[in-house]
Amino acid sequence: KMRYSLPLGSRPFGPLCIMHQMEVVELEPRPTNNDNRLSDASEFTVAVFEDELNRILEKLVIVVPCKDEDVEVIRGVVKGIPSLCAVILVSNCSHRHGDNGWEAQARMLAEFCTWGREGCFVHQKYPRAATAFREAGVPEVIDPATGTLRNGKGEGMYLGIAMAQSYFSQRRYIGFIDADNRVPGSVTEYCKAYAGGFALVQRSFAKNGTEPEDVMVRICWASKPKHNSETGRIEFVKEGRSSRIVNAFLNKLFAVQGKEKDFITTGNAGEHAMTMDMALRMRMANGYAIEPYQYIEPLLRHQSSMVSSGINGQTDKPYPLKRTRILQIKTTNPHLHRATGNDHITKMWAAGLGVLYHHLLPSRACEISGLDTNITELCREMRQFAVKNSAIRDTEELPRPTIYPSLDHADLNSFRDFLGEPCPGHDGSEALGFYGLVGQA
Ligand code: GDD
Ligand code: MG
Questions:
Q1: For ligand 1, atom 35: residue with the closest CA
Q2: pLDDT tens, 221-241?
Q3: Ligand 1 pocket, 422 CB below 6 A?
Q4: Taking a C-beta distance cutoff of 8 angstroms, is the pair 260, 369 a contact?
């Protein structure tokens, strides 16, 4: 159960429709009238109920990218994930043995799954995972120096999507939750917010008889608590240090009639979920550029599909792509995670601006999508900002992201054939394991 404030409309940009932020207003509402709506003097809200949420949760797989977090911290995250969801732990942990090595991470997940949850552990550097991608025709994700998958959160998510489609194919939604979250209760809320967002869209499809679209739910946290060492106090900061910057530029990009404030609140949302079809259709950016890229990828895909249909002389054919709808949901729990240094933050926003800079600059996508913004000017501003804030020198360009092909262009049958049937459990000698009910469905 969950109650939300109704979004005050949306903004359409060609194939992309971005909804204004909604907010969780009640975590455990009681049933009201049939329409699930209540209006008071000023506000409309809408509630989603247990059965609707469960119908989505049982079709949802949650990918948890992790590195060297303590096993107890990762365990807290898995604790918070509703047990109807399958869990894929994609680890890029630097060491195998010891209390917090990747074998211990895998064991922890295996323990959880003895209670009936479906789970999978895979190490990002598992050599067979790289070969499986080569078999699938995606050598780009392999680092030629090591022959294993490249490092990066985006790359870990990419592996997670391929695993989800290969081994959890009956699950039609995929969500991501960082492993360094210290509040298991907020993890539960994120999963419920994902499910609630999808359920609301489904409801409106059913009501209006419209075609289902690609749908994405992005989380905006109520706050990010930070310890201020000078005052000794915990401050409940509203916007993260990187989000603040990336959101500001996305807001300029998606401004309508000069109104640019507070529309995009989820540019960097590490916590987000989408329909599996959308995850397969989208190209992905490397590392931390992955999240901001998701905002422009549908526009770019639209443009390239128009170009390619033009080449085939079929420009007058109806536009074949699905529309993409992005929901932004603000949750009630704080987002408390590992504190990181300024260098990390600078790299993160520079990567976010870089992905916008390099992909918007030469593209007609913005024009086609009816964006009002002067893109050349916006790109110049981003670059200037990065120079002024010492992310790059004035002779340098913003970082250029690597873009990986959409997985619906990959041969995922070969990927799965190569990795084999999900054998239950694993002996700890291999960096791949399946637990619980996988393959028994
Ligand atoms: N598998 C894998 N491989 N996981 C990774 C890798 C990798 O190479 N790099 C990072 N991760 C995992 C971390 O272990 C963590 O659980 C999660 O991805 C997020 O990484 P952090 O290093 O904690 O990132 P952050 O907290 O600074 O940034 C997060 O929030 C941002 C928004 O504020 C990330 O989710 C960003 O993507 C997001 O933009
Ligand atoms: Mg973090």
A1: 270
A2: 988 888 888 898 888 888 889
A3: no
A4: no
